[in-house]
Write a structure and sequence with these properties.
alpha+beta, three-stranded antiparallel sheet, about 45% helix
Length: about 130
């Protein structure tokens, strides 16, 4: 039996946001791709660590990572827009719905902890890397 494109679209429309998020993650794993918004995918250069080199320097720049949204998605989108100046509504929505995602990179530990507390107060799960 063959499934039409329209049937697939109707099936996806009937899913909740949480079900759809899990479905997207499963497709990403199966096909080895990412559905993340391009604006949210800003990785810095890779750093190679030599075994015989000097001890690593203390980390001075941190990345705030939204790992799970929680129940207050709309408020989290608003908070992400406040944290990242110039981020549009669609970009903020895509970033939040695509969790886990980097929210802000190259910030101080104090800033990262402040933003983490703000997002966690809304029920989100956040990591600092």
């Amino acid at each position: 039996m063959s499934v039409t494109k329209e049937e697939v679209v109707e099936f996806i429309k009937s899913m909740s946001v949480i079900e759809l998020s899990g479905f997207v993650k499963e497709l990403e794993e199966i096909f080895g791709v990412s559905a993340a918004a391009p604006v949210a995918v800003a990785a810095g250069p890779a750093v190679a660590v030599e075994a015989a080199g000097p001890p690593p320097e203390e980390q001075t720049e941190f990345t705030l990572v939204l790992t799970e949204v929680g129940p207050q998605k709309i408020n989290i989108i608003k908070e992400v827009r406040a944290i990242v100046p110039g981020l549009g509504l669609k970009e903020a929505k895509d970033l939040v719905e695509g969790a886990p995602q980097n929210v802000k990179e190259g910030i101080t530990k104090e800033e990262a902890e402040k933003f983490k507390k703000q997002l966690e107060a809304l029920g989100a799960k956040v990591e600092i890397k």
